[in-house]
Design a protein that fits this description.
homodimer, alpha/beta, TIM Barrel, about 15% strand, disordered N terminus
């Protein structure tokens, strides 16, 4: 049987039965938007998403308000939301001070990060990759000692806005380093959306030789329109956790006018069509995406969100 | 070897080495836009696309100007363009009058169409599917006798805005009917963009049991963000001809604000990334998409087009 026949036979099977979606709109999404969203709106956003069936959600970022003023109210958001049973609320913690604030806010999971590109690390967080990992080591240790879930995000896993191509080896090296810091989950992130489907399959497969595939997550941006094709490719090599942002919240800071995170609505539409379960109600998320886009005075970045809203209005 | 292992082994191979792109922006794209484009701009659009390496292009629609006024200048467009050697120029011909005009304009290929949905046929062209095929029979016969390439497009192959789901059998039935009319090529068209990747694989495989796979073309709309995932799926089952529209020209008439044809730029970005040859220069198409979007006073519908233009401006 040749390769072609294998693909043919693979049609309609070979995909995971169920995947986990990490909703990143309220944190990674809002963080990249220039509009400040009132705390009450953020709280309502998180609560409504959980009501739609979301079980993992990024809710806050404990970073210096000097750098990201629109996320300065992380503690108030965490204090204001309804903490639903069985839901994991995550926060970004770039340093010990952030971790302490996250612990005080009783988050379930903290997120650290590092780039697969030296140039990006220098330009984005003003230190080398090695230095960034040293800084994260105590954050990781205390997080684990406190009993928190620890997740790491590898930015620029498919390309860098400053250095261009990023090698598979550079990503795998970061996977090993984060594994050695005791991370429970590692995100393979296409920060600028430049990856394509076979490249994604190659990187995911290489990463899975160093870290359990079930604990790798795909974080794809739709800047070049590739996110869903990349996720379809990742599903075919067995990846089961994906990040998505309601309404496509979050622009791409490196390309004006370009889109950022893949929209949760578009991802759910794909997964529903493939018969892959998520436990999340697409119709409810479509309404939330429409609502939050209106709150922010921005266009809805979810293509299926817009199409399904138009259908609702017609019916 | 289980299915999962087959997919894994399939990574990075099993795709066609080269695919044909039919550029539909100047016809299918412009036809769905409400703005009237001056004839000179249409001519320049066709010439520039051919200059970028496009070898198959929809250049005109010989339909009644009463129905589609923005395409009333088909004969002038065909007379005004530079006819490059080795390039096939196509026109839509809904009836004998259209065919006669197309022959007079010396097009290389004519396109007829029919729906896989009875409800769509009635609502869109005011007759049953069977009646539409009867009307096309003489068009098809004369086209073949004249030595023209004859292509048929099956609309609503994955869903219908009026009846909802469309069965694989309904599509296969249309494939047989168009085959029996002597068509050289048949388009499987997702008119409203509702299909997802496995559904696409199923329909393409079923169609290919009735008609050569190499003469089937995929026409995908990005209304629900699925177009590139669908094309990636179709490539995996061996499809080698795809339609695309520069700048994503063409809205979706059934969902206000929603996107239409998959953008040529996004498709080329995917194919370049997969190492699948097209003979078309992405960078040149990005410039054309930016230019034509400005001419029409519309936002560029190509995600990679926008991202790559932003990079050009920065460099």
């Amino acid at each position: 049987m040749n390769q072609q026949e294998r693909w043919r036979q693979g049609t309609d099977s070979g995909l995971p039965k169920r995947v986990h979606i990490v909703e990143v709109g309220p944190r990674d999404g809002l963080q990249a938007e220039s509009t400040f969203i009132p705390t009450d709106t953020k709280i309502e956003l998180v609560n409504r998403l959980v009501g739609a069936g979301v079980r993992r959600i990024e809710a806050a970022s404990f970073v210096s308000p000097k750098w990201i003023p629109q996320m300065a109210d992380g503690a108030q958001v965490m204090a204001g939301i309804d903490r639903a049973a069985g839901v994991s609320y995550a926060a970004l913690t770039p340093n010990m001070r952030g971790l302490e604030a996250a612990i005080e806010s009783k988050v379930d999971e903290v997120v650290i990060f590092g780039a697969a590109s030296e140039a990006f690390s220098i330009r984005n967080i003003n230190c080398s990759v090695a230095e960034s990992l040293e800084r994260f080591a105590p954050v990781a240790r205390i997080a684990k000692e406190t009993g928190l879930q620890l997740r790491a995000s590898i930015s620029c896993s498919f390309g860098c806005p400053y250095q261009g191509p990023v090698s598979v080896d550079a990503v795998v090296d970061m996977v090993r380093r984060f594994r050695d810091l005791g991370c429970d989950e590692i995100d393979i992130a296409d920060t600028i959306g430049v990856g394509t489907a076979h490249q994604v399959q190659r990187v995911v497969e290489a990463a899975s030789r160093e870290f359990p595939l079930a604990s790798l997550a795909g974080h794809f941006h739709d800047t070049y329109g590739q996110a869903l094709a990349n996720i379809f490719g990742a599903l075919q090599v067995g990846m089961t956790t994906f990040h998505a942002s309601v309404g496509g919240l979050g622009g791409c800071p490196y390309a004006k006018g370009a889109t950022g995170n893949v929209a949760t609505e578009d991802l759910l539409y794909l997964l529903d069509g493939l018969g892959v379960e998520t436990g999340i109600d697409l119709d409810a998320v479509v309404s939330i995406g429409d609502w939050v886009s209106q709150q922010m005075g921005r266009e809805n970045g979810a293509r299926s969100g817009k199409a399904l809203m138009a259908r609702k209005v017609l019916n």
